[in-house]
Design a protein that fits this description.
Length: about 250
């Protein structure tokens, strides 16, 4: 989880090299500080996931997300904007300030850089769901915003691929495979926000290998099945679940 710190160059007698050395040292400190925070967050997340049931984890996720999005966040907006880390570390103070500027300016069409834009999806997740106060509410919101935007980009891409697959073959089997692969890569706390049978339902559709044009299941060992029968078996909620994630879409001014 930890980042590899940038290598330090030897100091020279020139003011230019000294300036570069100071800049590089500051960058190294920023990376190593965040790396330590992420490592600590990962440990707390692992302990949380180990001690809570799937249902409890899903409820925990819902409560944690309500802190950084939706009505609860907006009701305490001024408080969140005033929040500063309980530290004298200038790097942490600067990052918290940048996060607040990002969530405010970006909501008004600004282009403030997200301090967590370079993190992996897993790293964003552990920040989003870390309520230890290691990060300010606006830092967690900034991480959530980055994760949300990536999720939306993935959805647009995979839906376009699904339409192409259907137009070419009459099937959506590869689409279901992509969704299942994506789901399997999610952290436990995000998987817990989906229906219990989400993965098994996707796998059954993959195995069925249904052709929506011929209304036939082409999977090995499967009996032919009409499209109407399959839709009755699925039900509208299960169908919608394939296209809807657990993200909170009611609050997207970020």
């Amino acid at each position: 989880m930890a980042y590899k710190a940038a290598s330090m160059t030897g100091a020279s007698g020139t003011s230019e090299n000294k300036s570069e050395s100071r800049t590089e040292s500051s960058s190294t400190q920023t990376i190593s500080t965040l790396a330590r925070q992420l490592a600590d967050s990962a440990s707390r997340a692992a302990e949380r996931d180990k001690t809570l049931t799937r249902s409890e984890l899903g409820n925990k996720a819902k409560n944690l997300l309500s802190q950084i999005s939706g009505d609860s966040y907006q009701a305490n907006k001024e408080k969140h904007d005033r929040e500063i880390p309980n530290t004298s570390d200038p790097e942490l103070l600067a990052r918290a300030k940048q996060a607040t500027e990002f969530v405010n300016r970006n909501s008004n069409g600004g282009s403030e850089k997200n301090p967590f834009a370079s993190l992996s999806n897993d790293q964003l997740s552990i920040i989003i769901y870390d309520d230890s106060r290691a990060y300010t509410i606006n830092e967690r919101r900034a991480a959530w915003s980055e994760a949300y935007d990536r999720d939306e980009a993935w959805r647009e891409k995979v839906c376009a691929q699904a339409m192409d697959e259907y137009n070419r073959t009459g099937k959506m089997t590869n689409f279901f495979k992509s969704v299942l692969d994506y789901f399997n890569e999610l952290p436990a706390i995000e998987q817990a926000q989906y229906p219990n049978d989400y993965a098994s339902d996707l796998q059954s559709k993959i195995d069925l290998d249904f052709n929506y044009r011929t209304h036939r299941a082409e999977g090995k060992g499967k009996d032919p099945m009409s499209l109407i029968e399959m839709l009755f078996v699925q039900g509208p909620q299960q169908t919608d679940a394939l296209w809807q994630g657990p993200k909170n879409t009611a609050d997207r001014e970020v």
